């Protein structure tokens, strides 16, 4: 049996769902590959590049800033699962002006996406609001700080469902990043210096993940079961609404990258970081190469 490490770069269903389905449904075993799913959230890039990674946003930033020749072989979605969540007193993105926003660091992929969305809503992240940088974890400390008033809004990820939290806590869902900015952010990527593109283990991993994507698209009730197991504060109806809003319409059934979306995303991220652009085909490979 072949073996390969697969590291996620963030917590939540955004990063973990597809690999979890592939593992739990036995798709890796069926492909003859043992996939060690690793927590690479705090890994340095040098360690991350020794295996495959799910974190395509981090891959793009690394390619643009470090020049590492990452190749993206499969894409799960082009709509990042991050949200702006306002306190009881903040009801719109415009009302973030002059407020305190808990957010990822600007040099991280989620932080870069947040800054792009802020700018698209007429807000300069350097001058129009106070960005309180934190290590996000599962965002529970953000919720605590929203309750006690030490922050006015938080940029949160998919360890929680923003609608459910907002309703329970009296907060406001201000924006979903996926409505404002599209970018290939989760899937499978490798550095060919460490893992050749013709590696049997890598190709088996890609095939299994693409099978999981088809399962998520074709068997919504099964997908909802897995979503509910991650977001276990949700009722089944709430988990189904989460699938209908964020997963079903936007997770690809085949792992294919939309090159037009990827090209525009590269341009936007490069502009935000103040670095040179790269050609889209330097990063993304057609998924059919790994059938």
Describe this structure in words.
The strands form two sheets. This protein has a five-stranded mixed β-sheet with strand order 2-1-3-10-4. It has helices at residues 13-24, 27-30, 45-48, 56-66, 109-120, 140-148, 162-169, 177-180, 200-218, 220-230, 236-247, 259-273; strands at 2-8, 33-39, 52-55, 71-77, 83-86, 100-103, 130-133, 153-156, 172-176, 186-190. The chain folds into two domains: 2-79 and 183-290, 3-Layer(aba) Sandwich (D-Maltodextrin-Binding Protein, domain 2), CATH 3.40.190; 83-180, 3-Layer(aba) Sandwich (D-Maltodextrin-Binding Protein, domain 2), CATH 3.40.190.10. 42% of the residues lie in helices and 18% in strands. The chain is built from twelve helices and ten strands. The chain is α/β, with parallel strands linked by helices. α5 (109-120) links the parallel β6 and β7 (130-133).
